[in-house]
Amino acid sequence: MARITMREAISQALMEEMDRDPAVFILGEEVGVWGGTYAVTKGFYDKYGAERVKDTPIAENAILGAAIGAAMVGQRPIAELMTINFAFSAMDYIVNQAAKLRYMFGGQFMLPLVIRAVGGGGRQLGATHSQTPDAIFAHFPGLKVVSPGTPADAKGLLKSAIRSNDPILFIEHATMYQVRGEVPDGEFLIPIGKSTIQRPGKDLTIVTYCKGLELSMKAAEELAKEGIEAEIVDLRTLRPLDMEPVLESFKKTNRAIVVEEGWKSYGVGSEIVSRIYEEAFDYVDAPILRVAQKEVPLPYNRTLEQAALPQVPDIVAAAKEVLK
Amino acid sequence: MAETIKMPKLGFDMAEGTLVRWVKNVGENINKGEVLAEIETDKATVEVESHAAGVVLQHLVDAGTSVPVNAPIAVVGAAGENIDSAPAPAESKPQAAPAAAASSSAPTPATVTETAAPAAAVSPAETGPVKASPLARKVARDRGVNLGSVVGTGPGGRIVRRDIEAALAAGQPLKVESPKSDTRKLEYSNIQSSNIHASDESIQTTKLRQAIGRRLVESKTTIPHFYVTHEYKMEALMDLRKQINGFLPEGEKISVNDFIVKAVALTLRQFPNLNASLSGTNIIRHGAVNVGVAVTVPGGLMTVVVKDTDQKPLRQISAEVKTMAARAREGKVKPEDVDGSTFSTSNLGMYDVDEFIAIINPPEAAILAIASAKEVPVVENGQIKPGWRMKATVSVDHRISDGAEAAQFMQTLAGFLENPVRMLV
Fold first, then answer.
1. Last residue of a domain, one of A183, A206, A231
2. Could you tell me which of A6, A108, B44, B266 has the fewest CB atoms within 10 Å of its CB?
3. Residue B404 shares a structural domain with residue B282
4. Can you give the pTM of this predicted structure?
């Protein structure tokens, strides 16, 4: 077990799977010679060659189209989107083709495809390159959506995703590549579609994932100084959504907030809150609150950008509000 | 000037009553003291008399409606009188137009109802939904806590789980105080239909029977009863009664029970804890001693109440009980007949009963169950001889009093029953 960064954990997962299975290959913008915009595939081109680490034109629909075709004939492509915002250019391939092929062809094809995409704001990349549209993709049956919040989860989930025969959108956060954590060496798998408790507590439940986990862990430390013990449930997978740990925790604490980086309206939080009301109504002791991004295009200006994104004090305030 | 008739308060713990039937319809003349409507309380169906004379201008609630105490139920005034200033009805009733106005022009009655202020006869504070979290509701349901008696500390006064827990910790009365509590559901568990055989007969219970069931389930399941039995020497009382009745005409003779009622009242003066009611964590010691006497009526029993029993002479107590009991048996009981008892008595002496125990009549603290006075062999100074003895058992709410106090009460009562001349002075 080594303490490594999220970037290293993801690289490790990719390399281990490429070593394990020759059908696994990578394609995307700047993934080869340059080593990836976020340096995740640095050294891969030298090790595996242009056959398995393919630089593509700046054309996301071409990347996805090629990846889907390859997956249909038995390869295991990993398509990298420089940012998830570019997924909109390939929207038809992702939600109409990848998500539905198996269904439309009556199971004649499987689609062992991983789309790695970088999401999230906070790096002053402007309104069109800083979005967190996770909920949009999680809306579509047929597409699995995974978004890890720790290096260990990133490794374990990515390895499972590559081995899965279903199309999986794997969302990494742009500001979390330097986050360090204990990651088991070698073979280490985490099943897709399993939420987990990242921090035990008894006073309230914080449901979150990805960047929200990092913020919530800090908020929980602040709350602990005041004697409030928050239990943090990390969804890890948005579809299929595993509500068991959420409901179990909520039935214990009876109070919850949901923290996500995306916009509040029609978001992940809305889904979680609805599920709790539907499945644990008699355990609700206070309205469940959502902490999310302000309802504006994310500003470029650093101060404004930070103000629009959910922050630790927002989580602390919401937690105290539901505990009233 | 039109006058408003309100839902009367017919008992210490009455919070609302159901208007069962309008006796006087809109447009009918009514005199002061005439019966306007029948209402049903937890205790009985009683008649509401009008304190105003004139024409019934408006019914403010529908028959069958549950109405909080003191809420307006009807308006009585002069025929055709404009009643804008009268309290508004819960629902608009265009047909409730005075006959005179209706004959001249149709819009007039409509104006009357429409311009009336929208304030409901039933104030939202009393009947609006209790604000409570779903969890608080569930815990309250599971633990038998009446939400109406819990103070909410959540945002906007919302009741949350900690409030229910605090109420439980503070020993809040369970399901006792509000008629909104679901004790009604407790009363008769539904027998499985498969358990009813062809030879069985299913009888619909009367309202009175249901009210008795409701109140006594509430009493027996929420009040920790304890019982103290005492045997009284009755020779002196029997002698005195014989003597007194010798002077009294038929129909005015004093019963053994009249003596007991008087003795109980005088004794209660010395035991304020037993002439009391529990309210939250307070004991309300009642200033008046109003002894209730259980009376058998068709389909059940009712308790008629002698007001200020301790201050009334025996003959008056006797006359009042006779009059009220007769009215109760004929189904013509008045609200004041059954209102305000602070202690109840139940006497089965006429049925040759050795002893029995009674269930406390909430919100009272105690009830006395009186058995038959019997001629039995007694031992006095080592000699067996015949004597008159009577047993009585007091049932007491242990939240209010203890065994020692109850025993002393019974002993003090003996001081009056065994020296009945004390009741005459």
1. A183
2. A108
3. yes
4. 0.53
